[in-house]
Design a protein that fits this description.
Chain lengths: 115, 110
């Protein structure tokens, strides 16, 4: 069975500092991996996705994530945090090629950016 | 925007009453989903649909039913609402590998 773990339910960084949000997954088949962002009172928005192409994936708003099979990880990073990055971030995994019923979401990490 | 709307956006209802939430898409996508979001749980799949009249259960389907009579509409019904169903409900569509989400419905059961 697939599962997703996000280390740290709350992360605080200073404006301009590195953002690192951790995601580890388990999957018995090659995974598709996703990061979504949720701003207050809004739905989830796709930040980036890994679908078995390049292991370093670039997304919107300067975020990127690296797929590391040996570590079963897909950590999200951004070199310099901006106040507008404060939001909830969700990592998700699905079985490659089957998006309809096998997307499993992690519990989320709330990112605070300190001025 | 992926062209997904949800109605109502907010609803307060009493325990034991039936409630129907509507998801409407303008994208003509085959797959549609209903999730609930609760603190500490992320999103959990309630039901999904892979076509008109084709639906299946997700992880937390007890107490919920769905219907899809048209491609564009996916309805979620709580037959007899309970306080444990107080949550934020999201609809999503899946044009490719990823999912696109609606704005959510905040449901409170008193």
């Amino acid at each position: 069975a697939q599962s997703v773990t996000q280390l740290g339910s709350h992360v605080s960084v200073s404006e301009g500092a590195l953002v690192l949000l951790r995601c580890n997954y388990s999957s018995s088949v090659p995974p598709y991996l996703f990061w979504y962002v949720q701003y207050p009172n809004q739905g989830l928005q796709l930040l980036l996705k890994y679908t078995s192409a390049a292991t370093l994936v670039k997304g919107i708003n300067g975020f990127e994530a690296e797929f590391k099979k040996s570590e079963t990880s897909f950590h999200l990073t951004k070199p310099s945090a901006h106040m507008s990055d404060a939001a909830e971030y969700f990592c998700a995994v699905s079985e490659a090629g089957t998006s309809y019923d096998k997307v499993i979401f992690g519990p989320g990490t709330s990112l605070s950016v300190i001025p | 925007d992926a062209g997904i709307t949800q109605s109502p956006r907010h609803k307060v209802t009493e325990t034991g009453t039936p409630v129907t939430l509507r998801c409407h898409q303008t994208e003509n996508h085959r797959y549609m989903y209903w999730y609930r979001q609760d603190p500490g749980h992320g999103l959990r799949l309630i039901h999904y649909s892979y076509g008109v009249k084709d639906t299946d259960k997700g992880e937390v389907s007890d107490g919920y039913s769905v219907s899809r009579s048209k491609t564009e509409d996916f309805l979620l019904t709580l037959e007899s609402a309970t306080s444990s169903q107080t949550s934020v409900y999201f609809c999503a569509i899946s044009p490719r590998d990823e999912q696109y989400f609606g704005p959510g419905t905040r449901l409170t059961v008193t």
